[in-house]
Amino acid sequence: MDLSAINPVLLIASLMVAATPILIAAIGELVVEKSGVLNLGVEGMMITGAIAGFATAVETGSPLIGFLAAAVAGAALSVLFGFLTLVAQANQVASGLALTLFGLGLSALMGQSYVGVKPPQMSDIHIPVLSDLPVIGPILFGHDIILYFGIALTAAVWALLKFSRAGLVLRAVGENHDAAHALGYKVIRIRLMAIMFGGACAGIGGAYISLIRVPQWTEGMTAGVGWIALALVVFASWKPWRALLGAYLFGGVTVVQLNLQAAGVAIPVEYLAMSPYVITIIVLVILSADKSSAPAALGRNFHASR
Amino acid sequence: MIRLEKRPQPSRVWSMATPLVAVLATMIAGGLLFAALGKNPVEAIRTIFWDPLFGEFAFYYRPQLLVKGAPLVLIAIGLSLGFRAGIWNIGAEGQYIMGAICGAGAGLALYPTDSALIFPLMVVAGALGGWAWAMIPAVLKTRFGTNEILVSLMLVYVAEQFLASVSLGLLKNPEGFGFPGSRNLQSWDSAHNAELITGTGMHWGVVAALIAVIFAYVLLNRHMLGYHIRLTGEAPRAARFAGVNPTRLVLFCLGTSGALAGLAGLFEVSGPSGQISIDFNVGYGFTAIIVAFLGRLHPVGILLAGGLMALTYIGGDIAQSNMGLPSAAIQVFQGMLLFFLLALDLLTNFRIALSKPEVV
Questions:
Q1: Would the pTM count as exceeding 0.90?
Q2: For the stretch A127-152, what's the b/e string if a residue is b when 16 or more beta carbons lie within 10 angstroms of its beta carbon?
Q3: Is the CB of residue B201 less than 8 Å from the CB of residue B69?
Q4: In chain A, N or C: fewer CB atoms in 10 Å?
Q5: Among residues 74-103 of chain A, which lie with CB inside 8 Å of chain B?
Q6: Chain B: residue nearest A43 by CA?
Q7: What's the gap between Cα B148 and its chain centre?
Q8: Tell me: the pLDDT tens digits for A207-229?
């Protein structure tokens, strides 16, 4: 065992990389839940985004186009969920599960010829002076553009929900869809847009895993990240900045356990590998008591019957 | 313009018909998928749905139907009780794994003793293992209000890691030349879940699945607890006024489904699969969710749905070896089935009416 091999600067830098897919997916789901819809299909949309982004990046040679394709794939899959829950009035929990099961199969099918392929690399941004700074440089200024996109997305969603009219309408729909409907807001349309936004975010988050974090394609490679993102929304009590905090916490757990594995700590590898899930459960238990900011209409279907 | 009108009563006819229509729709959509993969769609569908039952080698495949269907039915019956009451146990896969580990572990601890009591002991340990694993989300839900969907699911990943750990360590076969995995229970008579009638595929798991179906049917239709489960699902507020204790209901539903999933795991590991190994589990816990919905959360429906889903597994295997159809295609096929079913459920609860566009 050699803990001195762990470099704290690299640890924090890789923590941010590990946190980004969870963060982007969670921010997307946060918007969906704010509109009053519970989409449990995050895992399915992420894995579909992971393969769609990977395949596109390999074929076109451009990771950015890959991310774009991942967003489109995630959003397209989420439309299925939107149709089931908004139009066909299907149960949201069951539809979300269906989306995950379907997404896992679909991604395995699409990914068959991409196992073992290396994707084109996404270059890190180098800002001349800033990224050369000791300690702060590699932590803050030496990452890929999607990582910064994740942070910008958090800020944008926070500002949108808090200050804009669109955010107000979205929250109104999530709190009381009947009242919002009576006021003349198009509940179904707003919710569908939120669902598609969530799908696009989940897709990008998935592609981040297959294109940057790992980078390769293996079946079922998201391994529960989508579910952790769902837990993160509860943890964040539907507040964007707390989602960022939570994502970094989970990213930290993942990275630290990987580093401990590499350093050969006396704890068996399997127990280290289960730690992110165990910690998610513990955090859920601690924070579940606070449901005060949960959207009131969360999980309830809307049908304009009159 | 097409408009939806809520039916005063869910349509009985459509409730029975939707699974059949969903299967047909899935066959068509699946056929298109197979065609897109460059396979003959008609042949693919025939291989999946006809050959295992009536094809040339059906005598070999028919017993497999029971072998694959039993764990699905067993797990789905448990899940359906919770689903009916709005209690979502999504972690059956984890409970299945833990049941298998506990049951096999209890048996292996006594190796190589020969006794008729070993197998029953393993059955009890398997059920307890699954039950205990399901009690974690149940207790966290009742004590702290934690979401049981997320917790039970997280526990699947924990159980998978635990399975890897015991296959490489605690339960590893000391005579296994260093390979991961436990002793093969099939070659130890006291622990072997053998075929009860040779050539039929009938083993104790099948018997347990049939008992579970009858038990669930009686519970739901003839017992107060079953009435409470149904009432909670349909009208939670009314249920509270009627004196339903939600805590006890959560503990019962999650516990029962956990125990049944644990049993399924034990019967699988001591029978068809034979040993604890890193990936002996093949996703029955997740497929059972589809089975539960396809069976309309009704015991008899689940029995039929389990058979159908087993058929897609077996037919999928045949299509894989004969036609080179990728195994993931069957997974997509099963996912599609759930989609169609959920979408077509619309017809059960709503009437489609044609009317002039309203001013909204």
A1: no
A2: eeeebeeeeebbbbbbbbebbebbbe
A3: no
A4: C
A5: 80, 83-84, 87-91, 93-95, 97-98, 101-103
A6: B153
A7: 18
A8: 998 888 888 888 888 888 888 89
